[in-house]
Amino acid sequence: MKISQTISWTDRRPAPTVVSMALATRTDRRPSMTRTLWDSTVGKKTIMAVTGLIMLGYLVAHMVGNLKIFFGPGEFDGYAHWLRTMGEPILHYEWALWIVRVGLVAAVVLHGISAYQLSRRDIRARPAKYVHKRRRASYATRTMRWGGIILALFIVWHILDLTTGTVHTSFEAGHPYQNVIDTFSTWYGNVIYITAVLAMGLHVQHGFWSAAQTLGVGNATRDRVLKTLANALAAVLTLGFVSVPVAVMTGVVS
Amino acid sequence: MPDYAHYATGEPVVDTKAPEGPVAERWDTRRFQAKLVNPANRRKHTVIVVGTGLAGGSAGATLAEQGYHVVQFCFQDSPRRAHSVAAQGGINAAKNYRNDGDSIHRLFYDTVKGGDFRARESNVHRLAQISVEIIDQCVAQGVPFAREYGGLLDNRSFGGVQVSRTFYARGQTGQQLLLGAYQALSRQIATGGVELHARTEMLDLIVVDGKARGIVARDLVTGKIDTYFADAVVLATGGYGNVFYLSTNAMNSNATAIWRAHRRGAYFANPCFTQIHPTCIPRTGDHQSKLTLMSESLRNDGRIWVPKAKGDDRPANLIPEDERDYYLERIYPAFGNLVPRDIASRAAKNVCDEGRGVGPGGQGVYLDFAEAIGRMGRKAVEAKYGNLFDMYQRITDEDPYTVPMRIYPAVHYTMGGLWVDYDLSTTIPGLFAIGEANFSDHGANRLGASALMQGLADGYFVLPSTINDYLARNPHTEKVDAEHPAVAEVVAETEDRINLLLSVDGDRTPDSFHREIGELMWEYCGMARTEDGLRKALARIPEIREEFWRRIKVPGTGEQFNQSLEKANRIVDYLELAELMCLDALHRAESCGGHFRAESQTPDGEAERRDEEFSYAAAWEFTATGGAPVLHKEDLVFEYVHPTQRSYA
Amino acid sequence: MKLTLRVWRQQNPETPGAMATYEVDNISADMSFLEMLDTLNEELTLAGDEPVAFDHDCREGICGACSLVINGDAHGPERTTTCQLHMRSFADGDTIDIEPWRASAFPVIKDLVVDRSSFDRIIQSGGYISAATGTAPDAHATPVPKPDADFAFEHAECIGCGACVAACPNGSAMLFTSAKVNHLNVLPQGAPERETRVLDMVAQMDEEGFGGCTLTGECATACPKGIPLPSIAAMNKEWLRATRKVRR
């Protein structure tokens, strides 16, 4: 049903068509839950929150795995091998890993498409800027979009570097320990990686808290707990990930 | 009868619709007598409602719920901004939830007495009866009234009564009630039952064959002047307090709709009955554009005082307790700080006239919360009045938790308005007036928290019952359109007035004229009126009017958004209305309620009514601008509440 | 005090606007911001220029009509409405930038006046409780726990001024919409329409072209009535609940 445009002078601009189902058509069939989620800004944010949390869970596991590098090549490479055999004998070799990969790709794609569509919408909603500029919101909030783009580019490089070895200078399949040390022995490898990890930290700091709000977990009393948790997660992940290139650069790991 | 020159006396008016019989049964009787419109036929009737405040919003929503086609107007950008939104303190209802002896009859009695015996008993009793249903209705709509820990509604006390019957939502009761009505209206806009025209201002009334058939309105954005037709027109356009320039009314509240209706034949009743509210923030300088009210509810806990000595200019906290005069508690021990508004205002004026006023120019008295903070703790005071204290601090830059507030009376409400019968119909058939725009329920003084009650009673319950009768008896089969000669004439007059305003191109701004007429009215037709002063004002107003049409400057054109033009056009009507107010004040040579004639007071300075001569409502008929109007008297009959000198001592 | 004002002037929705510079003198610290603009407009009128158009009405901070972005802040530097902002918040010699609300859902009508009817349409889509006049039970029939009543009131305080949208870098109306959803959804009276209300109001909000929420918190900082940021989370929760519960 369309809510009538009752104010005559707004006729000059195209009237918003209204998707509301108030009153008379209230008993009509409503669209499916998936449709409702995908069509609404709140729904898209929910998709971003859920996919973001999936990726965040993965990051925590990934970071913990990375730290195995401090226990030497044996343990690190062994862990890498286990990732391929996990789920056996129920699952075939590497199946579990592929399931995780497919899930992650789906999460990244949904997160990215939602972010792109929402950003386009946001920019359209505020076409004119204020003449009087002033600093707004926190650094993490303002860097969400750029941070997201940096992370997307980084993921591509990261996979080509350490998963497929396409852009790696001396990649050897099955020897992740050596591959990692080689990557962090180049200046650009460190710069790219550390930049991306910092962007990830900021992204997680606002993203985690933001996801909690979107999923309706946040309220006035829980706000401090959520903010502290977001800061702690961001700090632990950043430190955990950065520790590897720093260890390689300082020779702690070689 | 003394000769007051410029008016003639016509036939008395009688309210033909109020039934006989016991007062408690009259409303039921009238509702049963009224003809009804078949539900299937209602959508064929169009009703125009002008204004979207408590009265207009609730009427529009309810009429649409009944099935009528409603066309509604507001000059604001949204119906939610009507000035009812600013009412602070609360709404009365005879629920007796406090078990403190309240009843419908007591609310009826308090209101008739509070109005200084210048209101109709039938109307006031109906108002008291309906008050109970209003609270039920608002709660069902989700109005978040204050509640106690048990989950039930809280009450507080207001001026002029000794029971706690006022329901409230912190200091924003008007806002919450208005949003309730606005939401009900919004629901009807969504269904198509109400066609809303926002930013559209009524400029004149269309009367065809003696019946109200539509309005002329200007789209404030495009400047287009258009006609709208209906089977009945309801004016819910509020009061005319802005004639005083400085008042607690919103900047754009105006008298144009009711004044234009008056010029087309609707009688205007008791125009001189204006309410001066005792607790407003004093003005700070000539730049002042409006005055801000501090809710009457503050008088529940605040104590009003001035220094005992004249010209004592020590800061409040340095004046010892025994050198303070809590004058309301002293003069009126039974009601203390909660005497009715007219009495509190006049007492404040008296102490200031004695030279005991405080603050700049000695135009203020203290409203002190030190004792309340000591008794209840700062936290409790904050919870009850926090938003009012914040507002006071923002405006004055003083902290009312540590320094007593300074307050002074200001124009707040107009009891007068279009004359209506028991059905709320004006003297033009098909034209109804509801809320503050009519005159019927408050007599010469309105009690606190009664305006919201009356607006909603009229809009939700009274008008939707009584308008049926008119529509059923007047099935307009003949169509009226823009081609009709009577319509073309009104449109032409409106356009001429707008064009004239734009073409004078003088050297004075609209505001300068508004300020001038306002100051004149405050001086001579304000808190205390004298024959001398009123005659001076009556001599001066035509001069200002003449000067206005010679020197007004309105930049821009009529075919655009033009706020100067809106203002100037409203002032045209103030300049005529002011004259009628002064004339009414002059002819009513008695004091009653908000109308205080210095010549008519008791030896101890209280208002003295003269019932044998003035126990009537004065309904004025328009003849010509500056011409002598005709006075029609409606005698007031008191069968239940017998007039006595009001005593709050 | 003496001030330099840079004000957005725009003749009508179709004509592009620009900032214009004016000097005003003899401004008292006790004046409200709008009274300062009144002073400017009196001078402009006498000079034969068109006065600056701006929305205002009650001047008590409750009607929600006034709507100016002052030095980049919606309603200016204090947490209040423009009409309750006083000139004591500024210093002699200051330059003040005054702009209209900016959002594509709030098109400019003239100068500083914008069209906020999109807010009305959001309310029309479901921001009410369907209780036709005369159908109500006794007011005490349904007690409301005090914390719920207070929560409802806190959100019902919204004045619909649009500062939240003006301050939001995305032009999002989430704070406005959530205030009404939370007000009505927490009350027992609002329960029967709880799901449809939030779904329809959010859908209408999107339809009007408001942006999405990125939780920057600018809205709650600008809100003169202090509607808190967690309102948005509370509405999200209602919305998610409704997508699961609504009867299809």
Description of the structure:
The complex is a heterotrimer of chains A (254), B (649) and C (248). In chain A, 65% of the residues lie in helices and 0% in strands. Chain A is mostly helical and 254 residues long. Chain A is globular and about 60 Å long. The termini of chain A are far apart. Among the domains of chain B are: 277-411, Alpha-Beta Complex (Flavocytochrome C3, Chain A, domain 1); 490-615, Fumarate reductase/succinate dehydrogenase flavoprotein-like, C-terminal domain (Methane Monooxygenase Hydroxylase, Chain G, domain 1, Up-down Bundle), CATH 1.20.58. In chain B, the strands form five sheets. Chain B has a five-stranded mixed β-sheet. In chain B, strands 6-3-2-10-18 form a five-stranded parallel β-sheet. In chain B, strands 12-16-15-13-14 form a five-stranded antiparallel β-sheet. In chain B, helix 10 (370-376) runs antiparallel to helix 11 and helix 14 (510-525) runs parallel beside helix 16 (563-587). The radius of gyration of chain B is 24 Å and the shape is globular. Chain B starts with 7 loop residues before the first strand and ends in a 14-residue tail after the last strand. Chain C has helices at 33-46, 117-124, 146-156, 163-167, 174-185, 194-207, 218-222, 230-245; strands at residues 3-9, 18-24, 69-70, 73-74, 95-99, 108-110, 113-114. In chain C, strands 2-1-5-3-4 form a five-stranded mixed β-sheet. A two-stranded antiparallel sheet of chain C has the order 6-7. In chain C, strand 1 and strand 2 (18-24) form a beta hairpin. Chain C starts with a strand and ends with a helix. The model of chain C has no long low-confidence stretch (mean pLDDT 96). Classes of the chains: A mainly alpha (254), B alpha/beta (649), C alpha+beta (248). Chains B and C meet through helix 3, helix 5, helix 6, helix 11 and helix 12 of B and helix 1, helix 2 and helix 3 of C.
